[in-house]
Amino acid sequence: MFIKFLNDDSGATAVEYGLIAAMIAVTIVAGAGLLGDSINNFFLETSGELDES
Prior knowledge:
Layout: H1 2-7, H2 10-52
């Protein structure tokens, strides 16, 4: 029974999918943070130009 338990790989797939989902989530959060700063700067510059005219 112990040997059968050691040879069982069914839980490994779930762990792998969990790690992939975590990596995708981290990538999305990091990308949104970088893009958010860029969009914020764009609107601040546009607002400043509108105030000057």
